[in-house]
Amino acid sequence: MPGELRLSFQSDLNIRNIDQISKEMTTALDASSRLTLELKEDAVVDLSFVQLLIAARRQANRAGGALSLARPAGANLLGVLSRGGFLKEASAEDLEFWLHQENSQ
Q1: CA angle (48, 22, 24) in 5-degree steps
Q2: Among the ranges 3-12, 13-22, 95-104, which has the highest mean pLDDT value?
Q3: Average pLDDT for 75-81
Q4: Dihedral over Cα of 41, 51, 7, 11: its sign
Q5: Half-sphere exposure of 74 (CA within 13 A, CB side)
Q6: Structure confidence at residue 3 as a pLDDT band (50, 70, 90)
Q7: pLDDT at 103 over 80
Q8: pTM: predicted TM-score of the whole model, two decimal places
Q9: 4: part of which helix (H) or strand (E)?
Q10: Domain span holding position 25
């Protein structure tokens, strides 16, 4: 398997596109154990994308790899994370993944 792959999404990150996003992420994770995602800063984001990221991150970790975001969560993704309660009492690993910070306290 090659080293790290980068995958860029320039579309909205929601239920309308989730099948294609999932296929692209699965293909990339099958090709490399380390995947970095570049997300469109102003993309429309919904819970389906957050759920997909959580599942893909767990899959990568189980396979001994890693999934990461190229940049901290943008405003739209951050809004979904906040409304969904994903940042409340988040682990240091989760804060590093979503926000690129070690601790919110």
Answers
A1: 145
A2: 13-22
A3: 97
A4: negative
A5: 14
A6: confident
A7: no
A8: 0.90
A9: strand 4-9
A10: 4-99
Q: Give domain status of residue 104, yes or no.
A: no
User: CA-CA distance, 105 to 102, in Å (whole number)?
Assistant: 9
Tell me the sheet residues that pair with 7: 37
* Distance of alpha carbon 58 from the chain centroid: 11
Domain count, the chain: 1
- Please provide the DSSP assignment of 8-68 as one string: EE-S-BSTTTHHHHHHHHHHHHHH-SEEEEEE-TT--B-HHHHHHHHHHHHHHHHTT-EEE
Cα–Cα distances (Å) from 96 to 9, 25, 31, 67, 78, in that order, read 20, 20, 24, 12, 13
Q: Are 40 and 70 in contact (CB under 8 A)?
A: no
CATH code assigned at 29 = 3.30.750.24
Q: Is 6 helix (H, G, I), strand (E, B) or coil?
A: strand
Residues 6 and 102: their CA atoms lie apart, in Å, by 23
